[in-house]
Design a protein that fits this description.
Belongs to the acyl-CoA dehydrogenase family. With about 375 residues, this protein is an alpha+beta fold. It is built from 11 helices and 9 strands.
């Protein structure tokens, strides 16, 4: 019988290595699953799982050398699906650490910076965060006001950042700042005088995850802290595209878990003397969820193969992030309706997934921004300003 979460037998399109990675991460998440509702309720991110994430090679997964795992783009995508099937907070940790902080150093850092930081980050002993968004500069990062000025051989950074994942547990922050020569990136130790990370609470979404406000007050770093390969906004945008790629896969985990929860419940829940799975309206909901999930799987796999071939374009990443996140939210919300009133209980995952996905659809580019990226590609006209 065809798997209800793989109607087109897409497993047949995966290699043994890809299936092995997926199954290993799925096994870990299955072990964590009983604790996830409590983590969400208590707004707790389980730092104790970081060594296991590192052991499975999930930190900086696609990068080569410097202790990094060097796995494929599809393997990373499959891992993101399994993590987010548990909770978006799990996938977000891996994304911030690997696709943002480690990506910045691996792509734009000096040889000395790579050797100094990447092995520890891949091992999970050094945690990083990525400071781009500001209180008044989210979708328009060119409007950032954080500024780094030269002072002898040092740089002195002043400014504020907001919604910065992992910042309160991080050892280093990748800080993007305006300079006299345009936007530049800096590796800033989080214990530097003048650096303050304050967790944002309370939250209605991504509760089992850490997001912070940052204040940088005369934070002094040496010249060697600047990322030499990053000039202008192309630097952070390259990292954001890596993260967006992972999101296009990861949200399907939340969608799949929501759909399977609804499917199981519909078979067990009796109304009018019959399981609700026997009613046409319920079957229509389940069929609609299965179609959306399957379309998302096909899109993600195509993006992965393009990325492995070195042919993935920014507008294609925007397509994947926008379409799959929208689909995942619709599935999670529809799944909650199948569960009826019981769907608001913490023992059931769809509403938690739906709440989390509201954050995921906003970070790394809102629906509106990705729509305009596609619009620019289709028309040749930029409508951002």
């Amino acid at each position: 019988m065809t798997c209800p979460a793989d109607l087109l037998d897409l497993d047949d399109q995966l290699s043994d290595a890809e299936l092995r990675v997926r199954d290993e991460v799925r096994g870990l998440v299955d072990q964590l699953r009983p604790s996830i509702p409590e983590w969400y309720e208590k707004a707790y991110f389980p730092t104790e799982i970081i060594p296991e994430l590192a052991r499975l090679g999930l930190l900086g997964m696609v990068y080569d050398g410097y202790g990094c795992p060097g796995r494929s783009a599809v393997e990373y995508g499959l891992a993101a699906v399994e993590l987010e099937a548990g909770d978006s907070g799990l996938r977000t940790f891996v994304s911030v650490q690997g696709s943002l902080a480690m990506s910045a150093i691996h792509t734009h850092g000096s040889e000395e910076q790579k050797r100094q930081y990447l092995p520890g980050m891949a091992a999970g002993t050094i945690i990083g965060c990525f400071g781009l968004t500001e209180p008044n500069a989210g979708s328009d990062p060119a409007g950032m006001t954080t500024f780094a000025r030269r002072d002898g051989d040092d740089w002195v950074i002043n400014g504020a950042k907001r919604w910065i994942g992992l910042a309160s547990i991080a050892h280093l922050a990748i800080i993007w700042a305006q300079t006299e020569d345009g936007v530049r990136g800096f590796i800033v130790p989080t214990d530097a005088p003048g650096f303050t990370a304050t967790p944002i609470t309370p939250k209605l979404s991504l509760r089992a995850s850490i997001q912070c406000d940052l204040e940088l007050a005369d934070v002094r770093v040496p010249a060697a802290a600047r990322l030499p390969g990053a000039a202008g906004l192309r630097g952070p945008f390259a990292c954001l595209n890596d993260a967006r790629y992972g999101i296009a896969w990861g949200v399907l985990g939340a969608a799949r878990d929501s759909y399977l929860s609804a499917l199981r419940y519909s078979r067990e829940r009796l109304q009018f003397g019959r399981p609700i799975a026997s009613f046409q309206l319920t079957q229509e909901k389940l069929a609609r969820m299965a179609i959306g999930l399957t379309q998302g799987q096909l899109l993600a796999l195509r993006l992965g193969r393009l990325k492995e071939a070195g042919r993935l374009e920014p507008q294609q990443i925007s397509l994947g992030k926008l379409a799959n996140t929208r689909t995942a939210i619709e599935i999670a919300r529809e799944a909650r309706t199948v569960l009826g009133g019981n769907g608001v209980a913490a023992e059931h995952s769809p509403l938690r997934h739906a709440n989390n996905l509201e954050s995921v659809r906003t970070y790394e580019g809102t629906d509106e921004i990705h729509t305009l990226v596609l619009g620019r590609h289709l028309t040749g006209i930029a409508a951002f300003r």
